[in-house]
């Protein structure tokens, strides 16, 4: 069971650290949102977080969204998909999610679009770009981004709002920060091609101050809010 008082303390501490990182970077704290990542934690944890005023939650598995949405059908939750998505999950995503931050290929865009059209819905999406060197990290190659954004214009149900990335897992701050910097620079380059991509989702519990220094508009925080995952 989640301890509500402990959760409230964690949340306040995270928001304070985010605000401090903004001020250190000369940025307005109002320009950086926190996406609480509730993956592996149950509906009771989400409910406790909602009591603190939180409404959007990041999840990396569609099955978990299904289970939690069923247990929380009496409240209005915005589920944000942040993990690798299989195309055969598009139907559930179109039905349950308010946003997908891990859009990384055209067949997924195609599947989401047809499901969304059938439901008469649309979805905010961020394109996940691979800025880390690890082979295991998913995302679109940076050099493929401009053409990909052009192709996405064919899917009016997908409202492209920005970019998302996961940095390299490294002790070397310079290397981590280079991933975040690359995402910002890609965004700036694409803006000159007429793609407005206001949102940059980057930074997690261990590296969010660096992401904020490089221009994150949203940090995805799991462990520092909900505790360790087992
Ligand atoms: C789990 C996860 C996070 C949150 O990670 P923490 O280190 O627990 O803050 C952020 N982004 C993605 C894509 C994740 O899968």
UniProtKB/TrEMBL annotation:
One of its GO terms (molecular function) is pyridoxal phosphate binding. Pfam families: Ala_racemase_N. Pyridoxal 5'-phosphate (PLP)-binding protein, which is involved in PLP homeostasis. It comes from Dyella psychrodurans. This is Pyridoxal phosphate homeostasis protein. Residues 2-227 form the Alanine racemase N-terminal domain. Keywords: Pyridoxal phosphate. NCBIfam families: YggS family pyridoxal phosphate-dependent enzyme (TIGR00044). It comes from the Bacteria. Its cofactor is pyridoxal 5'-phosphate. The keyword Nucleotide-binding does not apply. InterPro entries: Ala_racemase_N (IPR001608), PLP-binding_barrel (IPR029066), PyrdxlP_homeostasis (IPR011078). The modification N6-(pyridoxal phosphate)lysine is found at residue 39. Belongs to the pyridoxal phosphate-binding protein YggS/PROSC family.
């Amino acid at each position: 069971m989640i301890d509500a008082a402990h959760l409230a303390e964690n949340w306040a501490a995270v928001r304070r650290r985010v605000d401090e990182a903004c001020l250190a970077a000369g940025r307005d704290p109002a320009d950086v949102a926190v996406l609480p990542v509730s993956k592996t934690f149950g509906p009771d944890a989400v409910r406790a977080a909602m009591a603190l005023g939180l409404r959007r939650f990041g999840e990396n598995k569609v099955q978990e969204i299904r289970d939690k949405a069923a247990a929380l059908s009496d409240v209005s939750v915005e589920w944000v998909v942040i993990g690798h998505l299989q195309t055969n999950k598009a139907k559930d995503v179109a039905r349950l999610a308010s946003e997908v931050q891990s859009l990384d290929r055209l067949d997924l865009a195609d599947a989401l679009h047809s499901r969304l059209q059938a439901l008469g819905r649309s979805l905010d999406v961020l394109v996940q770009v691979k800025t880390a060197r690890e082979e295991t990290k998913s995302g679109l190659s940076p050099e493929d981004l401009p053409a990909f954004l052009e192709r996405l214009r064919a899917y009016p149900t997908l409202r492209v709002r920005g970019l998302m990335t996961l940095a390299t897992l490294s002790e070397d701050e310079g290397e981590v920060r280079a991933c975040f910097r690359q995402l910002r620079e890609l965004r700036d380059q694409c803006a000159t091609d007429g793609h407005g991509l206001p949102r940059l989702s980057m930074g997690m519990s261990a590296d969010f101050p660096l992401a904020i220094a490089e221009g994150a508009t949203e940090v995805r925080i799991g462990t520092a809010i909900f505790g360790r995952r087992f």
